[in-house]
Amino acid sequence: AQKVTQAQTEISVVEKEDVTLDCVYETRDTTYYLFWYKQPPSGELVFLIRRNSFDEQNEISGRYSWNFQKSTSSFNFTITASQVVDSAVYFCALSESGTSGSRLTFGEGTQLTVNP
Amino acid sequence: GAGVSQTPSNKVTEKGKYVELRCDPISGHTALYWYRQSLGQGPEFLIYFQGTGAADDSGLPNDRFFAVRPEGSVSTLKIQRTERGDSAVYLCASSFSGGSTDTQYFGPGTRLTVL
User: Fold this and answer.
1) For a tag site, which of A26, A62, B68, B94 has the least CB within 10 Å?
2) How do residues B31-75 score in pLDDT, each as one tens digit?
3) Which residue of B has its CA nearest to A104?
4) Is B49 within 8 Å of B70 (Cβ atoms)?
5) Cβ contacts of A1 within 8 Å, gap of 6 or more
6) A37 in B contact zone (CB under 8 Å)
7) CB–CB of A98 and B45 under 8 A?
């Protein structure tokens, strides 16, 4: 069975600090997909990134970067120079190839608070 | 273009009542998913539709829960004999084809409160 663990329940930082959100996953599949979503106070889940298991290149998008390491089954997310608007709950999720559709298994989320 | 929409945004009902929650996916998306999110938790999968058919309903907690998508677009999640434990945010998502490479786009959710 697949599982996603986000060990950090809450993180609080001061604006402009860098912050890394950890994600560890478990799967028996060799082909799978990893996602990060942001859930601001409004409640809607906002897609941030998708990675497939064959692509271990790190990715950078503006202040966001993602570090995917198959050896440690981790897919960590770093926000550089955090801003108050980054305050939200962040979810890591996993889907496996071969299951019907692409049902997502989510972690429990990390509440990030960026203080001015 | 328009995103996934869900109605109502909030629903308060009494224990034992029947409720219907509606989801309108992104136009052209053939795959539709329902998830349930309890307070402080990540979303949990309920059911997946490919077109009009429920391709995977293994996440439905019991037979009080049922969902339909009769024309392959709008979907309705139906809960009979509601219980206080059903209180949660019900999220709907859609994706283009349902393949594992697809990205799911989520609606704002319906917050269900069972008194």
Assistant:
1) A62
2) 999 999 999 999 999 999 999 999 889 999 999 999 999 999 999
3) B45
4) no
5) A26
6) yes
7) no
**C-beta atoms of A101 and B109 within 8 A:** no
Residue in B80, B77, B79, B82 with CA at minimum distance from that of residue B114: B82
Give every strand in the sheet of B5-7, ordered side by side. B5-7, B19-24, B75-79, B65-68
Residues in chain B with CB shorter than 8 Å from the CB of A37 are 106
Nearest Cα residue to A38 out of A116, A96, A92, A113: A92
Kindly state the helix (H) or strand (E) to which residue B45 belongs, with its residue range.
strand B44-50
Tokens of B25: 């996916």
Confidence at residue A105, expressed as pLDDT on a 0 to 100 scale = 94
| A56-97 confidence digits (pLDDT tens) | 888 888 999 999 999 999 999 999 999 999 999 999 999 876
CA atoms within 13 A on the CB side of B81: 3
- Report whether A39 contacts A45 (CB < 8 A): yes
Name the residue among A97, A101, A109 with its Cβ closest to that of B55: A101
Q: Tell me which residue in A46, A93, A97 faces B100 most closely, judged by beta carbons.
A: A97
